[in-house]
Write a structure and sequence with these properties.
six-stranded antiparallel sheet, four-stranded antiparallel sheet
């Protein structure tokens, strides 16, 4: 899976926490840190890289915890260029977290020592990663709260609002498009349900005029109605 491909193809400089770094730092990381090339549907176990950081340079991946039966917990669906997983200097308790490529993806593996040295030389990188993981933690806490207090339509409405705000893709007539394509199965993993329940919930939101689906993408057509659904159960 490791490949030596030209640096200009992997967009290391575009990773959200590495922007504005000196070229010398980017070149150093490129020399020191190997590339990981995942084909579509290929999966790796995140624990193999727990003493370090994975940068998603291009493509799209899903971070999830496999379970038995129809349900599966999806923590995030990420698109380049960003950080995958959570950096750490020590091995963590056994836990099977997997990264699945939803399309051909390229990652760079940065060992903990190299990452720590990078932050010591460039403290702004440390501040950016704290901010990034703070945002993700807030999102996860909100999803956990919804899982306890809300039914599937309300949980799905809240998720779609968060995705639309994060991906920020406006189209004509004031509609907001969720840029990435999500299957019903992937959405189910993100709201703690199953595919059938999410399909029914999406139908409820569609009939209420809150969302539409076009060419396998979800469009928010009435944000106020979607927010009303998201508030249900509070």
């Amino acid at each position: 899976m490791f490949e030596d491909i030209p640096e200009e193809q992997v967009r290391l400089a575009e990773v959200n926490i590495l922007r504005e770094l000196p070229q010398s730092e980017l070149e150093y990381l490129a020399r020191r840190c190997p590339l990981l090339h995942l084909a579509k549907e290929e999966t790796l176990t995140l624990g193999e890289y727990q003493r370090g950081v994975l940068f998603l340079l291009s493509g799209r991946v899903r971070v999830h915890e496999p379970t038995f039966g129809k349900r599966e917990l999806t923590f995030s669906v990420l698109e380049g260029a960003t950080v995958v997983g959570q950096p750490g200097s020590k091995p963590r308790p056994p836990r099977v977290l997997r990264v699945q490529a939803l399309e051909a993806s390229v990652l760079r593996v940065v060992g903990w020592e190299d990452f720590e040295a990078l932050v010591l030389r460039n403290p702004e990188v440390g501040l950016k990663i704290i901010g990034l993981f703070g945002e993700r933690l807030e999102e996860y806490e909100g999803r956990l709260s919804d899982l306890i207090r809300k039914e599937v339509p309300a949980r799905l409405a809240g998720l779609l609002l968060r995705l639309s705000e994060r991906e920020d893709a406006m189209v004509g007539c004031g509609d907001r498009r969720i840029a990435a394509r999500y299957t019903h199965w992937q959405l189910a993993g993100m709201v703690g349900s199953n595919r059938e329940a999410v399909t029914r919930a999406l139908g409820v939101l569609r009939r209420a005029g809150a969302v539409e689906t076009r060419n396998r993408r979800i469009y928010i057509t009435d944000a106020d109605t979607l927010e009303d659904f998201a508030e249900m159960g509070r």
